[in-house]
Amino acid sequence: MLKHLHIQNYALISHLDIDFADGFSVMTGETGAGKSIILGALALVLGARADSKVITDGEDKCIIEAEFTDCIIRRELYSNGKSRSFVDDSVVTLQELKVLANQLIDIHSQHANLLIENADFQLEVVDAISQNEAVRADYSTHYEAYMSALEALHKLQELAKKSQQDADYIQYRYKMLDEAGLQEGELEDLEQEQYTLSHAEEIRAALQTAVEALSGEQGGAIMALKACRLNEVAPELQERIDSARIELQDISHEAERQLQRTEMDPQRLQWVEERIGELEQLKRKFSAESIDELISMRDELAEQVNRLDSFDFDIEQASKAVEAAKGTLTKAAEKLSKSRQAVVPQITKTLVEGLTRLGVAHAKVEIPITPTPDFLPSGKDEVQILFAANLNQSLRNVSEVASGGEISRLMLCVKALIASTRGLPTIIFDEIDTGVSGEIATQMASIMREMSAHRQIIAITHLPQIAALGQTHYKVYKADTATRTETHISRLTDDERITEIAGMLSGKNATEAAIKTAKELLCCH
Fold it and tell me: Is residue 207 a part of any domain in this protein?
């Protein structure tokens, strides 16, 4: 429960500290006194959107701190628009703060009555009463699996469609490179061979000259070295001469072999030049720098061609995965729907009883649950709360047939029903009594007081019937100082409550009759 609220430099509040009691508390005050300011500060500390304009004029920051039974939450807002959030003095993100706040307190403001007209809220009501968290979590798991399988199938189908559109072009390019019979290093070898063939005559002449110079019968170097005999006078030199002669003989033999291999072959030269031209043309056509790059392109195109052939199989497998996931999801959706349908009789019975108690004597409520065409994140159900307040009135959507006062009463019944199934420690009702008065207001207060047996209830109200039923009474008021107007809140004594409720009955200057009525209202409760 909310135990203490500290507000500093927020709007008309320079400094405020207030302790809150358990049970049923009421908060009253004239219009414009600042009840909405206090509620706004509380909403801010619970994670509402921050706006630096709420900082008191002339101040650099505002601080709101709420102490709950199990933790202390603090929000600091700075004039530069930045804010920081703390839980027990540890910094938390705004999202973490909101998650925690949703487990601690529910602030039901006036505009929240409109939620009853919202289909998502109506579904949340049914789920809250059915307490089907585990079933919904199971459905969500299977829903995500189904959507993932569906997305994978659609991607494959799109890829297949695009690939099919490009299929002819892909196959054409692959065929061109494949039929070219590309080999690594081929162009370099061909260019070397081209040079050899185109210069065969000069090469042969050079080789012939080398052979003659080395081993010719007339003045060859090898024969000349054989004639050298220096063993006795210079053995080391003779050894080197012999070694050189052996090397020259080897060179001569290799030169003779190359001479034999080097032939004039115009036809081969023509083929080599044509092959080089073909390879260079392919490089230009495919914007490649080398034959190796062309080979990489060919291999990549081969993979694309293979994928074209495998799309049908992949799509078939993906379709089977979608159907399997859909089957599992269908069962989960049916289970979720049954959990909702099971509590509908309880909800309608309780709401009708509550509305009857609140003066809607002929209230009728039905909650049809119909299947949706598609799977939704919330299930496969459409939930509607249909309402009729009068005899012979057809059941229709709440927004079409309920007055403001009827919506307020219906919403209170819904909140009371939800509260009975949830362990939410604190609920704040901000003028939920809109459109009601007299005995109906008293009954609304009775319901809120009954709710307070198991949780803290705080009601902000303008009705004396509700204010009188509170176990603790707080008054919000404004006071002027020399320089500004300040909003304050105080806990009223028994005598102060009489004066406050009498003022709510008859105006600022309470009459004796109003004071007597206020005492009677308080004595009755």
Answer: yes
Q: How many domains does the chain have?
A: 1
* The model scores a pTM over 0.70: no
Domain annotation covers residue 486: no
Nearest Cα neighbor of 264 from 209, 203, 210, 207 is 203
- Is the Cβ–Cβ distance between 214 and 248 less than 8 Å? yes
Beta carbons of 332 and 312 less than 8 angstroms apart: no
User: Within 13 Å and on the Cβ side, how many CA atoms surround 500?
Assistant: 29
Q: Are 5 and 65 in contact (CB under 8 A)?
A: yes
Asked whether residue 224 is domain-assigned, the answer is yes
User: 455-502: per-residue pLDDT in tens?
Assistant: 999 999 999 999 999 999 999 999 988 888 899 999 999 999 999 999
Identify residue 2 by its one-letter amino acid code: L
Degrees to nearest 5, angle at CA 48 with 46 and 53 = 120
* Ramachandran quadrant class, 240 (left: phi over 0; alpha: psi -120 to 50; beta: rest): alpha
Beta bridge partners, 64, equal 7, 75
231 lies in some domain = yes
SS (H, E, C) 193-227: HHHHHHCHHHHHHHHHHHHHHHHCCCCCHHHHHHC
Closest CA to 371 of 324, 333, 328: 333
* Residues contacting 79, CB < 8 A, separation 6+: 52, 55, 59, 60, 61
Strands, E, within 61-142: which ranges?
61-68, 72-78, 83-87, 90-92, 105-108
SS3 105: strand
Domain residue limits at 234: 149-316
